[in-house]
Amino acid sequence: MTTEGTSANEALRARVAALRRDATKELASAGGTDQLEGWRVKYLGRRQGTLTALMKELGTLAPAERRALGAEANPLRLELEAAFDARKQAMETRAQAGAAATKPLDVTLPGRAPTLGKLHPTTLVLREITSAFASLGFQVMEGPEVEWDSYNFEALNIPQDHPARDMWDTIWIDYTDPDKSGGRPMLLRTHTSPMQIRIMERTRPPIRAIVPGRVYRYEAMDATHESSFFQVEGLAVDEQLTFAHLKGCLFEFAKRLFGPQRQVRFRCDYFPFVEPGVDLSIDCFACAQDAAKRPGCRVCKQTGWIEIMGAGMVHPQVLRRVNIDPERYAGFAFGLGVERIAMLKYGIEDIRLFYANDLRFLRQF
Ligand code: FA5
């Protein structure tokens, strides 16, 4: 290094030291955010900042000198940036504390109302359904959603190769037990009817029970079909029960839920665990009152009716399986779709709205 080089070097080193001293002093005396910003531009500004200019000068030095001075100048940038941040933070904290001190708390201001949740439309209707049946003498019971094949199908007269199994496309669970259900895997119950068996296994007649609960089907979804929905099963077993009791009970239920003006229709239907079997429909809320739309619309698939439940007299074979003598006792059973009933009650045109979690829909109930 030449003598000239050394003195230039020392001059630069002295400038770094002076810069550190001046910048630190000025920062400490910056009184407000404007002055603080002015300081930042003066020392750290990308175009004309003093430190930036010094760094540029370093670029003109010989490599060995550049390295030696860089080692002093580079940490200075980091040091000044950190000092700037700390000063800014301190100023903001002081400003906030000052504002709070000059603006006293107004205890007379109205409080912020907490957002209250609402009951889901399925829950609302489920409660109406259970209270209607409770007032007709039915007791409420619940059962497992993960079920054995034997309860969901076998004990309900639906053997393994029976075509009726096609009616409930099933979601299977990867779990078997060699001692249960003939070693066949468990499933998500496709209907609440397995609870008919569980109740009759545990209780002797007279029985009057309803079972609300979630069921699952591997279903092609559309305006009236979900893959997970709620059913309410009903079961009555007693001496001398007839189809007239079934009809009377369900007519009364429909009247309580929908009012006397609603039309109710019974039609023959097939379920392997009842004989005879029926389905019960209610006239379509979306088009029944509208002459222009009759005889049907998208909601009722152009039929004018919406099916809400299947029902029938408990099959004697089902009674025998749970050791109830069909010569002495008879039973009726029904299974209704809760969302379908909510659709009818509230005029909801698409079942998929129930579980889409759109608050604009849910807040309406
Ligand atoms: C059954 O599930 C029988 N277990 C009902 C039954 C019980 C019959 C006792 C006889 C005695 P079904 O598959 O039809 O039947 O369903 C009953 C009701 O559930 C239907 O009437 C309908 O209201 C509703 N439901 C059926 N599938 C769906 C679905 N994918 N989405 C929404 N609701 C449905």
Provide a quick synopsis of the model.
The protein is built from 11 helices and 9 strands. It has 365 residues and is of the alpha+beta class.
Element layout with pairings:
Elements: H1 3-29, H2 33-44, H3 50-58, H4 63-102, H5 121-135, E1 139-140, E2 146-148, H6 149-152, E3 186-188, H7 194-202, E4 207-216, E5 228-239, H8 243-258, E6 264-269, E7 274-283, E8 305-314, H9 316-321, E9 329-337, H10 338-346, H11 359-362
Parallel strand pairs: 1-4
Antiparallel strand pairs: 2-3, 4-5, 5-9, 6-7, 7-8, 8-9
Helix pairs in contact: 1-4, 2-4, 3-4, 5-10
Adenosine-5'-[phenylalaninyl-phosphate] binds at residues 191, 193, 217, 219, 225-226, 229, 231, 271, 274, 277, 307-312, 333-337, 339-340, 351.
For the structure shown, list the relevant keywords.
365 residues; alpha+beta; BirA Bifunctional Protein, domain 2; 2 domains; seven-stranded mixed beta sheet; 11 helices; 9 strands; 41% helix; 18% strand; elongated; binds adenosine-5'-[phenylalaninyl-phosphate]
Descriptive overview:
The protein has 365 residues and is α+β, with helices and mostly antiparallel strands. The protein folds into two domains: 100 residues, no CATH class; 242 residues, Bira Bifunctional Protein, Domain 2 (BirA Bifunctional Protein, domain 2). The chain has eleven helices and nine strands. The strands form two sheets. A seven-stranded mixed β-sheet has the order 1-4-5-9-8-7-6, with helices on both faces. A hairpin with a 4-residue loop joins strand 6 and strand 7. The longest helix has 40 residues. The radius of gyration is 39 Å and the shape is elongated. The termini are far apart. The model has no long low-confidence stretch (mean pLDDT 90). It binds adenosine-5'-[phenylalaninyl-phosphate]. The site of adenosine-5'-[phenylalaninyl-phosphate] has 25 residues, from strand 5, strand 7, strand 8, strand 9 and helix 10. Adenosine-5'-[phenylalaninyl-phosphate] (FA5) binds next to strand 5, strand 7, strand 8, strand 9 and helix 10.
